[in-house]
């Protein structure tokens, strides 16, 4: 089968198409014919990871496809059943295996392209907002990178599921307008506005209850200024650097801030399964009615995985980037 791996760690140029055997599902797994796979930041981080050594993996942690073989005891996943979800690598390929307890039934209202844009960003957004950020109804949340995949998911969850007040940052008028369409109450252009000052005005000096931070070091001081007493600050990315030059811990103590760092991909299978099951129970009805929807920026054929990675690295996307593997 065709798959996308890497010649060695490095830039998008190292991606290469390979011919490898079809995977064999173990007990508790499903073998899928992959129709679509999503491109995620974690794929780029793995591609650049100089600690990796050959043989290099097939990339991709998120797929949508149809069941070819069921090696689990889950009778709902008969041959031909349409599913989507997170895999333990191998998503950029014609076939992939997925643990049955992480496979999500694909409703008739969604196609394979849309489905591939759900699991990673919505599970991450759900985890950060509710398991870690403890967002409560009618609280205020500040979502950085609002037009990113996780950002667009978080906006919708916070508004539809929690009726929260949503403040977002993004770097262009186009991206901010789209965030408003999804339900953002307040928008801030971080390139032309000081978001800490704007948050202070918007919250009458009280700050926000929850921060979803993709940026890290370069936003440290402004996030400290923006968060409320007893606020929950969830760090899920370091696009703005990893080192804070000067750190005064008194501010964390004075505001009783909970600062939590997380990544979803390295979590255990058990953690991901539990998260998936809770997410399905609480949020699936919103997908079925269209109240919450995956945001797809554009698609690339599998053979253009390099171009898809470059597109993401250029921060051109609003929402998800999808690789099409086989005809839907």
TrEMBL record:
InterPro entries (UniProt xref): ADH-like_C, ADH-like_N, ER, GroES-like_sf, NAD(P)-bd_dom_sf, Quinone_OxRdtase_PIG3
The record's section on CDD domains has: p53_inducible_oxidoreductase
Q: Where is the Enoyl reductase (ER) domain?
A: 10-323
Q: Which UniProt keywords are listed?
A: NADP, Oxidoreductase
Tell me the Pfam families matching this sequence.
ADH_N (PF08240), ADH_zinc_N (PF00107)
Recorded protein name is Alcohol dehydrogenase
Source organism: Enterococcus mundtii
């Amino acid at each position: 089968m065709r798959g996308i791996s890497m010649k060695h760690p490095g830039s998008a140029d190292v991606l290469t198409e390979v011919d490898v055997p079809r995977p064999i599902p173990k007990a508790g797994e499903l073998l899928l014919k992959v129709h679509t796979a999503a491109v995620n930041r974690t794929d780029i981080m793995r591609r650049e990871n100089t600690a990796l050594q050959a043989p290099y993996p097939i990339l991709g942690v998120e797929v949508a496809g149809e069941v070819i073989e069921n090696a689990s005891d889950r009778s709902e996943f008969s041959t031909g059943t349409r599913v989507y979800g997170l895999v333990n690598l191998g998503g950029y390929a014609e076939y992939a295996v997925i643990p049955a307890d992480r496979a999500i039934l694909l409703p008739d209202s969604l196609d394979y392209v849309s489905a591939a844009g759900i699991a990673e960003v919505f599970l991450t957004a759900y985890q950060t907002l509710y398991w870690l950020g403890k967002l409560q109804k009618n609280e205020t949340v500040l979502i950085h990178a609002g037009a990113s995949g996780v950002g667009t998911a978080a906006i919708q969850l916070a508004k539809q599921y929690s009726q929260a007040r949503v403040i977002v940052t993004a770097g262009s008028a186009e991206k901010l307008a789209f965030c408003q369409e999804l339900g953002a109450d307040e928008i801030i252009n971080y390139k032309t506005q000081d978001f800490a000052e704007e948050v202070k005005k918007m919250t009458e000096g009280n700050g926000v209850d929850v921060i979803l931070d993709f940026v890290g070091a370069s936003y440290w001081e402004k996030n400290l200024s923006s968060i409320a007493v007893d606020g929950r600050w969830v760090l899920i990315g370091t696009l703005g650097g990893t080192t804070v030059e000067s750190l005064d811990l008194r501010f964390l103590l004075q505001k009783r801030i909970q600062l939590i760092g997380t990544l979803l991909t390295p979590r255990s299978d058990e953690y991901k399964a539990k998260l998936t099951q809770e997410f399905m129970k609480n949020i699936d009805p919103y997908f079925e009615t269209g109240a919450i929807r995956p945001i797809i920026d554009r698609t690339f054929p599998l053979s253009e995985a390099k171009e898809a990675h470059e597109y993401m690295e250029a921060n051109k996307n609003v929402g998800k980037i999808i690789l099409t593997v086989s005809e839907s």
